[in-house]
Structure formats: structure tokens, C-alpha cells
Here is the input.
Amino acid sequence: MNSHIQKTKYRWTSFLLAVCMLLTLTSCSGAGSVYTVKGSPELVQTENPDSAHHTSKNLKSVLKSGLYELMLDEANCSFALKDTAGTVWYSLPVAANSTASLLTVEVTNGEKTYVLNSQDNSVAFGTAKAETTENGIKFSYVLSEKKDSPQFKIPVTLLITLADGQLVASVDCAELTSGVKGFSVSTVSVLPHFGAVAQAEEGDFLLIPDGSGAIIDLAKSGDAQYSVTTYGADYAVEESDSHNAIIAAFGLKNDTSAFAGIVTEGDAISEIKAQTLKDGMDNVYASFNVTPNGLTKTGDDKYDFAVAGDSYTGVISVCYRFISGSSATYSGLAAMCREQLVRDGMLSTRSVSDDESLPLNVTLIGGIKNTIVGTSEYTTFENAEDIAGVLKAKGINALTIKYDGALSGGLEQDNIGTAKLLSKLGNRDDYESLQSYLASQGFGLYLTVDLVTTASSGEKAGGVLHRGVDVSYANEVTKYLGSDTFNRSGLAAKNLTDNVVEFMNEMKEINVPGYCIGDAGYVLYSDFSNGYTDRQTYSENIFGQAIALSTNKNLMVEHGNLYALKNALIISDIPMGVSYEETASYSSVPFVQMILHGTVEYTGEYLNLAADYDKTLLRALEYGALPSFKWTNNEYIPKDAEFSALYYDNWTAQALEIYTTFNTVMADLRGARMTDHSTIQDGVYCTEYNNETYFYVNYTDADVTYNNLTIKAGSYLRVN
Here is the structure.
């Protein structure tokens, strides 16, 4: 987010001349361009790598800073970091291997994709050098697929700096476009083997930001690979985002020391990757999608490969911070990540106040488009006021309402630039009555607004194969209303600011206390229309518009992608688990929640829509989430159900019970830091806060005794 993004493009003239007789090429209209190739490109990797170039040896001290010493291996262009306790973090391992490198780069022309690395494709060719700088080392490489008569020579400079106890690795991607001559640098991976573990011991782990966060127990792991895309898939080239992260950070623990890696520049084009091997090295690192590319299905087992004609030309950067001893836990890594994100201006410095009651969080569904009668109302402004009144009468004195589908188009909202209050829900006086009542009771109100997608008119973003950007997501309440999926189009990135200004002008005479950013909290894409906008630039634009929307307003964000969180008071429906299957070696942890708790509040899965109500409730308590429900005023009961899970009146008794429970055991923890999380035994966990509060949850069907404490089956216990 800190980088100054430069927009450049390069021409593919040589590429077209070289392969036009063999390949079918198309390009999108506008200044941005996409080239497509029938079939998948052939993957070409280095043959017979020389293991001599893949190890660290003859390391000499070149820089000391505080507790750390930077050492350089000039022959193999590698480095290591040593602390005063004697712990050494190697960029290339000392044990013999044939895979480790400081950089890996994929280069494609659509027909072939070459997988290159700094050691086999530069050091071995004599085109790499290392120079010491005032605060680090500059590694200069010229990468090519072969030593003699290569098709391309790609210059890459890796800067390593050491200051204030942190190591920073960065690459200026503007340099990558020179020397390409018909090829495109599609991905760059930075320090993929930094700190790699060759022989794991009990307690060693990798940490990746899958959903809420995942720990990979290296003592139990076999051969496996994991990859999570920061902020979800790029919908300009992909159709799904099955494994995603809302924060670009990762970690590794080896013996008594650990490091956290935080992507500080280029986060929106990054992926966090991890690999474990029974006979090999375990590693975790950040990879960057410099040029959008991907496979598009054109038939049964048939695909076209699409690659953009424009690339990201800013800086990519990863900051490494180190910890040892009893603090070398994933909670310790989370604390360092939070500190770094606050320092970088991505998270607020404020603390959540726990002076008032912890609120019950309710999402109300307003309207939704119906092909027969247009937009149908499910919870009108008058209904919403009545629901709030019922909850108040039952004794709920703190309430936050997120109002989905309250703008024109309902859940399939119109273009933000033309959106207004949905008339089917009532007139202006009805809305003002609702807002006035909520304000008089001290209740919160957030209108959900979709910023980057639309189900109606508006200038659309450009994707691959002459198409726009298509965004489809599952409708979790399809049994009650709407189709199985909501299908939307990405709006042109260049219009975001103007669209938000138009919307704010439309709403300026209406008293709206807060907005919830909907789609932009979980949807991010490249745009190839009217000039290329890369995901990093777009994320920075959304960051700015989120701040604009929060001016004199409260702000909520759906899902919680980091670029929208700076001024947010609450995140709705934050990930509360992992996307990969949990196993003995792969488990969910509240890594993201540890970073955020006390700074911004969050809700998890809606209790009334959960497949397992009791387990979802316990997970909210374990991960420090606020309770939440999603309701309508419609009592429709599906044929295969005994009652309506969406009808509010079926849940008011449970809502009061949950509200009372959470205020009794969690209210004074709202502003506390989550300082530790541990496994007592399978199915039993403990979350610790910085005010010496311990919170135990027991998911098993038997009582568990621990330290003379009894945690009841399927229940929880708070200890001060």
C-alpha cells in the first residue's frame, strides 16, 4: 500500500510476429490489452540444476544493526541474518539441495512458461553480483532460460535492508519489463526459502493467513502444498476464490525462534505459499502476480490461456520481523504483524471502548429483485423499526443493525453512482422515523453499499476474452429468497471516485449514521478497460474511498479485506475458520483475530444460518467475535423446513439469551488484546487476554478437567 504506483505498458510486437502463425490472439478494446492462446502453455523448468549454487557458504559479516548481523556469500549471491543469541536465518540453506533460491520468476509468451530462479538462471550463468549498501545488500541478476543465445534477458534487482530490528526484501517491478522482447514476467516469488526448515522438531510450524489463520505442524506434516490469495481471486482472470486471505502475512517457527513476514508493498497482487516435504525443506513465502494471467474454460477439458499486455510496475516488498524464546508463538507473530500494520497506516491506533454494553448485531434484508414483480420488499423501514422495538422491549439495550438491500436494486444493488434509498421499503419519512428511533435508543445503523460491482447499468470493467469482469457468489439464503447465486458485473475502476461522490451527493440530505462497505470488502479485480488498472492501484483507490465514506460517519466492512479497514469500527462476517481441510497437521487458529481484536470489532457466521448453532456459538466465544443474526420480516417456510430460519420472531428469545451471555462474559474484553491461544487437548482451547483473563471452550461431549478447572461438555469457562 505504501508504493507509488506507476502506470506503464509495453508493446508485444515481437511476440505477435513470432507466434501469430501458430496462435490465435485477441485483444480487448481500450488501452488495456489481453492476449489469449488456445490451450495451456507448456511449463519449462531448469534441467539438471547444480546443487553447488543452492547453498550458503563462506558467509562474511557486512553489516551490524542492533542485535542483528547481516552476512553475505558473494559467490552464490546469498545472505544470512544472525542475532546475538546465535540464531541464524539463511536465505539459502547450508545443507545440500538443488531447489533453493532467493528469487523465482515465471516468464511466459503464452506458448511456454519458463520457471526461472536466481541460482540456476543467473548465478550459474555468471550474470549475478552482490554489492553492499549503507544499510544492506543489493543483489543484481540477469535471468535467462539458457546461458548462450537466450530468447530473453530479464534484469532483476533484489534489495535487502536491515534497520530497527527488521529485514526488508524488495523488488522494483518496473525493471522487469525491460529486455522482455515478447515475453511477460507473470510472477515473482521473494525469498522462497528464507528460514526453510530441513529437519523439523516438535513445536516447529508454518503460519499462513488462510481464513482466520492456519498453523501447519511440521512435526506431523507430510508432502503438501498450500496457496492463499490475498484479498481473493482476481475476477478479471479467475472465476472463484476458494482459498483467500484478508491480511498478507505469514510466519515460521524453528526451534526457539520465529519470524513474521508482512507484505508491505504489493499486497493486493500477492499470494502466500507454503510447502512441506517429508524428505526436503519446509518453507513459506510471498509470491506476486505481476502480470494477470490464467486459464479460461472454453469447453469440456478445453481452456484458453489469457495473459495481460500490461503489468504491475510498482515495488513489491516483504518485511521480516523476528522473535525468540517463550514469545515465539503464533500469538507473538500476530502481535508483531499488528504493530507493523499500525506503523504502516493500515490499521487504526484506536482501541475499542468497553464502557458500554456489547451490542447484538443484526443484519436485516430489505429488498431483492424478482423477475416477475421487480424488486420485492422483505423488511421495510417500518418493519425494521418494529423489530428494533421488539428487541428493546425484551431487554436488549445495545443493538447494531446492518441493513442489506436498502438501496435501489435491493440485494442486487444498482450502480453506486445512481443508487438511492429503495422506495419499495418506504418513503423518506419512514426511513427518518427508523433512523430517529434507533438514534434515540443509542442503537447503530449501517446501510450496506456495494462500491465496485453492479447488477444494473454502469460502465463495466474489462476482463479476459473480450468479456467484462463477472462476479458470482453463493446466496446463503437461497431457500428463502433469490436465486442460488448473485451474478454481478465489475464496474470500471476509473469511475470509482466519481461514483462515490455521486452517491454521497445523493444521500447528503438523508441522515445516514453509518455505511457498511459490502462488495469492496471481499471483491478486488484488475481492469483492462480504458487503460489498465492493476489490483494494487485499485485497492489503494478503495482505501481512499472507504475513508471518504467514513467522514463524519461510522464504518463497517463486510468480510474484512485489509485495504478497507483503516477507519472501520466493525467487520461483518469475518472468516472464522480455514478453507483447506483441517487435519492432524493443519488447524485453524485466530491469527487474524489476534491482530484485530481490541482495534476493530468483528462478527462471524450468522447464528441462525449456522449448520451447527452450538459449535458456531462456541467459536465466536473462542475467537472473540460479537454475536450476529440475519433476519427478514417475512415468515416464508421452505418445504423441507419446520420453520423459517430467517424470520426474526423465531429468534428473539435466543437473541436475548445470547445478548445476555455475551455481555456477562465478554463485554469487558472488547478493548483487550488477545495475547495467546492454545490447545489444551483435542477439542478444548484456551484464549488469553492482556487483562489476565482466560477463556476456555470445550467442543467435546465430555467434561474436561484442567488445572483443577472443569470445563463442561459443549460449553465454556471464563477465569480471571
About this structure: The first strand starts at residue 34 and ends at 38. The chain has a mean pLDDT of 90. The CA atoms of residues 417 and 501 lie 8 Å apart.
